[in-house]
Amino acid sequence: MKQSKFRTFRSYSKHETLLLFYHQTSMTCNLMVWTKYIFFIASTLNSGRHVLIMDEVDGMAGNEDRGGMQELINMIKITQLPIICMCNDRQAIKIRSLANYCLDLRFHRPRVEQIKSAVLSIACKENVNLPPDVLTNIIDSSNHDIRQVINNVQMWCSSGLIDSEGLKADALGARKDLHLNAFDVIRKVFAPDISGSQGSVATFNESLDLFFQDYNLIPLFVEENYLNVRVHNTHDDKKILQLMSQAASDIATADIISSTIRSSRTGSWSLLPVQGVFSTVSPGRTLRGSLPGGPGGVSFPSWFGKNSTQSRINRTTSELAAHLRLATHCGSSNPLTLLLDYATPISELITRPLKEGDIDSAIQFLINYQITREDVDSIMELTTWPNRPNRMLSVDSKVSYQHTY
């Protein structure tokens, strides 16, 4: 059963799928699975082995599929029939809740030897003479996709193309387009032995294709990880520093181009390949080397966390500026002015009376400036720095300010 056809709560519970179990005896059980397309009755569990396969469960998302994942989990909780859930993207957020109720089995791509033995056995039964070295090229060009390997072999045999050189050339032309995740791409960007379609060093266009795997995310990965690259064939610290400097300059140029591309006034998306050259191709070829291995070898961009913090601070300062605008005679209407001229004095005027135990003065000040309890926490956060701790920490805990205001 494909989840692309049965995804919503309604399709599970009302229209398309009804799963009922009821016991007749302690040894037998009647099962009825009814769908719009499937009607299946098993009189006893001992009469045979049955399993329900739910394919493409990672495709359940959005408003159209609302409630589908939860209903599938509920089915797993009450069913006596084994349910196999299959997905393509195991790391998807929507799979996390389902994974808690499943035995997580990971499957890896089959090796060349495994695919070669299976395809050669098929070719032998079909009386097809297929050279092993040609089959290896076919497997590599299809990225170990068994279905594409069999389809390509069948197509070439049907067309009468049995020449080894012709098969090799066609195998290279029938390469499968792949979508790599960012962690795989970043290693290919800096890899010293990256191979192109002809088995040699990747061409310029092939290196640029790595950028277009995700042109929003890959530059951030390059910026985050280029300092961790172990440069190949050089141990001169001065030379490595020069290469790092050149890569940093290219990344900075790419950032300027990115701002121009995404500007509301210009919107020059035709510059996207130029950004790819400066953000990915040039740093990768300058710092040709390897990244540390292991799960922590590639760092996720810290830009996302810092950008989230900046957005939250901007939102907080805008709210504070609106609250203080009347009391400051519009002096704090600008969030930047609030941060530079008002935040520190206000935090001092709030905490100083509290240190002396004068709660009434602190509360009166808050009332005069129309500062809410949430605003106080925001002001303290905005005035906290690595060398300047939160001023509220110096207030005696016995002062019950937070309960009186």
Automatic annotation (TrEMBL):
InterPro entries: DNA_pol3_clamp-load_cplx_C, DNA_replication_fac_RFC1_C, P-loop_NTPase, RFC_lid
Pfam families: AAA_lid_RFC1 (PF25361), RFC1 (PF08519)
Domain of life: Eukaryota
Gene Ontology CC annotations of this record: DNA replication factor C complex; nucleus
Gene Ontology BP annotations: DNA replication
Keywords from the named record: ATP-binding, DNA replication, Nucleotide-binding
A molecular-function term among this protein's GO annotations: DNA binding
Keyword Nucleotide-binding tagged: yes
Keyword Cell membrane: no
Family recorded in the similarity comment: Belongs to the activator 1 large subunit family.
Name assigned to this protein: Uncharacterized protein
Species assigned in the record: Schistosoma mattheei
Organism ancestry: Eukaryota, Metazoa, Spiralia, Lophotrochozoa, Platyhelminthes
